[in-house]
């Protein structure tokens, strides 16, 4: 039986990496005062048809359930979040700073950085329209990536503003209704050939030269991005952002400020993307509630590729994983007759919260020490003929002491205290 294309088995080493990514996402989001939420894996398909729009609608994993409901597995969080906020907005103080780390499903063609199942960190800030919210979210995004050991040499946040393009298009006679179609051409600008873009622009009475001219001198809409840069400069983070108006994002709900993160080597697709969606909650509440909002999504697949390729990031991950997997104590049984006493000690140590392991089957002492090393144990407790005295060994420091078994917990604790 083969895996479905775009789906993954998570063997222990893959699970360890996934846990590392999720734990780091959670830790940094909390550092910025964000709280975690979640929603359902299945939603009515209409939620995505009406609210996500763009390419995503053609990528849904959807089916009709036994109650004749047409449902879709979640491909993103933003429509769900808008629904949740619209439902219980009054119960929460603004601004809301919420994050989640869900698994998503998109029927895309599998390729590097693109699967049919992936995890995505979402951080959203709701109820604050000022540019300082935009800067705060970018700072969180940048610090999130720095926490993985990625630096200014490794990634860049390309910031842009959809309004700049909407003004540009409206001034040149493109109708309101066709603005999203026009933005879709700009979204593909860097990936499509000049001829192909030219063909699609002709539908709007525009040429590639018009676009190139605008990119070279975008006009006053880009000013907002200057105030962002000033805020980030005060935090020492301005070196991570660049203005790039070719970013417009492929989802329908974005209203203005948008951004995407790319690796500097440009060997990957976007690592994260987001922006303002100031009208989505209003749409979700049939006009009853208007709340400005912005957020971003960061996928685990591209991030994992970068961690693998960038030595500083890889070494941080390896340290984390080794620490998670290591045993604190390995109980070495030097005299088979003392097995009941050794099991008693094992139980006491585990109940005290120490990660404790031992050889299940009788084995030579040397072999047991090898196993202790393999498990990354800090200490070994040797139980043998000296009972009720036991030997306590610090494996890395090669230090050894003999103590009474009743003193074990007291002797162990300072040796295992995290430095
Ligand atoms: P998105 O650009 O569709 O935005 O996805 C954000 C990130 O998720 C991408 O940059 C990419 O790293 C990852 N991603 C997307 N699709 C796949 C895939 N098929 N395989 C692997 N990784 C993938 C959104 O989803 C918005 N809802 C983000 C947002 C939150 N905007 C505001 N709040």
* Second-tier CATH architecture of the largest domain: 2-Layer Sandwich
The CATH fourth-level homologous superfamily of the largest domain: Bira Bifunctional Protein, Domain 2
Shape: elongated
Overall mean pLDDT: 94
- Uncertain runs with pLDDT below 50, 5 residues or more? none
Q: What percentage of residues falls in helices of 4 or more residues?
A: 25-40%
Termini separation comes to 47 Å
Describe the protein in words.
The chain is α+β, with helices and mostly antiparallel strands. The chain has two domains: 12-320, BirA Bifunctional Protein, domain 2; 329-418, 3-Layer(aba) Sandwich (Rossmann fold), CATH 3.40.50. The chain has 15 helices and 17 strands. It has helices at residues 12-31, 45-51, 78-88, 131-147, 162-171, 179-187, 194-202, 208-216, 223-234, 280-284, 300-309, 311-325, 339-351, 365-374, 408-416, and strands at residues 35-36, 42-44, 62-64, 70-73, 96-100, 103-105, 117-126, 155-161, 241-243, 257-263, 272-276, 293-299, 329-333, 356-358, 379-383, 389-394, 399-404. Strands 1, 5, 6, 7, 8, 9, 10, 11 and 12 form a nine-stranded mixed sheet that branches. A five-stranded mixed sheet has the order 14-13-15-16-17, sandwiched between helices. It has a three-stranded antiparallel sheet with strand order 2-4-3. Helix 4 (131-147) crosses helix 9. The mean pLDDT is 94. The site of histidyl-adenosine monophosphate has 24 residues, from strand 7, strand 11, strand 12 and helix 11.
């Amino acid at each position: 039986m083969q895996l479905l294309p775009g789906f993954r088995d998570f063997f222990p080493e893959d699970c360890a990496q996934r846990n590392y990514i999720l734990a780091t996402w959670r830790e940094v989001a909390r550092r910025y005062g964000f709280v975690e939420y979640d929603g359902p894996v299945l939603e009515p398909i209409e939620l995505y048809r009406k609210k996500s729009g763009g390419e995503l609608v053609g990528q849904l994993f959807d089916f009709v359930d036994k109650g004749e409901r047409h449902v879709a597995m979640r491909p993103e969080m933003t429509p769900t979040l808008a629904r949740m906020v619209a439902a219980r907005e009054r119960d929460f103080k603004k601004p809301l700073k919420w994050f989640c780390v869900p698994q998503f499903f998109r029927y895309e063609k599998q390729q590097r950085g693109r699967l049919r199942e992936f995890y995505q960190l979402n951080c959203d800030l709701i109820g604050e329209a000022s540019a300082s919210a935009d800067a705060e979210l970018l700072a969180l995004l940048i610090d999130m990536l720095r926490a993985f050991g990625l630096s200014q040499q490794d990634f860049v946040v390309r910031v842009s503003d959809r309004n700049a393009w909407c003004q540009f298009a409206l001034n040149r006679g493109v109708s309101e209704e066709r603005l999203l179609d026009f933005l879709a051409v700009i979204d593909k600008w860097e990936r499509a050939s000049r001829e192909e873009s030219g063909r699609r622009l002709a539908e709007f009475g525009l040429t590639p030269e018009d676009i190139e001219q605008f990119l070279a001198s975008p006009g006053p809409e880009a000013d907002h991005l200057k105030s962002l840069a000033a805020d980030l400069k005060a935090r020492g983070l301005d070196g991570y952002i660049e203005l790039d108006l070719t970013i417009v994002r492929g989802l329908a709900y974005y209203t203005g400020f948008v951004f995407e993160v790319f690796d500097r080597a440009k060997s990957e697709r976007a690592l994260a993307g987001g922006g303002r969606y100031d009208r989505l909650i209003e749409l979700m509440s049939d006009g009853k509630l208007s709340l400005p909002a912005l957020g971003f999504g960061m996928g685990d697949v591209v991030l994992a590729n970068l961690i693998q390729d960038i030595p500083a990031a890889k070494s941080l991950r390896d340290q984390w994983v080794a620490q998670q997997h290591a045993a604190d104590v390995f109980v070495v049984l030097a005299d088979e007759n003392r097995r009941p006493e050794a099991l008693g000690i094992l139980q006491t140590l585990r109940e005290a919260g120490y990660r404790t392991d031992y050889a299940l089957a009788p084995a030579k002492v040397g072999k047991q020490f090898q196993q202790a090393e393999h498990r990354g144990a800090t200490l070994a407790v040797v139980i043998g003929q000296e009972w009720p005295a036991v030997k306590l060994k610090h494996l890395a420091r090669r230090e050894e002491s003999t103590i009474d078994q009743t003193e074990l917990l007291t002797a162990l604790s300072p040796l295992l205290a995290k430095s």
